[in-house]
């Protein structure tokens, strides 16, 4: 996972780093029309002396952090969609089951995305030791 961190505060060799995920379309949402939002987190790590506030640094994440979230993305979304359709179809006394099934799918996908974002943000903050600060990046 490509991550870029911005040094927000620095005291001695410890810095508060604001991390945002770089998506395939780039790190600027204006590059594409997908309308996606970046999730972000803040971690505290030791940095080199030549890094100062406002600098961008490369953040290297270990494989475990990214593999679990991508597997969860597909498994959770698929299971919520299937479960919502089955539950709606099994409910007695509903006249328009197709319409309610479509609504249940939409609600379950939105719920899955919100849960994934919250869980991913929590894992990034909890597992800050699994992130390594790489070299300084010159942003133009």
From TrEMBL:
Keywords: Membrane, Transmembrane, Transmembrane helix
Domain of life: Bacteria
Bilayer-crossing regions: 73-94, 100-118
Name of the protein in its database record: RseC/MucC-like positive regulator of sigma(E)
């Amino acid at each position: 996972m490509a991550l870029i961190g911005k040094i927000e505060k620095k005291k001695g060799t410890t810095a508060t780093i604001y991390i945002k995920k770089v998506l395939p379309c780039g790190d600027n949402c204006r590059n594409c029309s997908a309308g996606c939002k970046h999730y972000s987190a803040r971690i505290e790590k030791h940095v080199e002396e030549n890094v100062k506030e406002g600098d961008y640094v490369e953040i290297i994440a270990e494989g475990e952090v990214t593999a679990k979230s991508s597997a969860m993305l597909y498994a959770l979304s698929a299971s919520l969609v299937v479960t919502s359709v089955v539950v709606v179809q099994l409910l007695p006394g509903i006249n328009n089951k197709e319409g309610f099934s479509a609504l249940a799918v939409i609600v379950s996908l939105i719920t899955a995305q919100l849960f994934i974002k919250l869980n991913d943000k929590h894992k990034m903050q909890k597992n800050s030791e699994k992130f390594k600060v790489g070299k300084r990046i010159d942003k133009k």
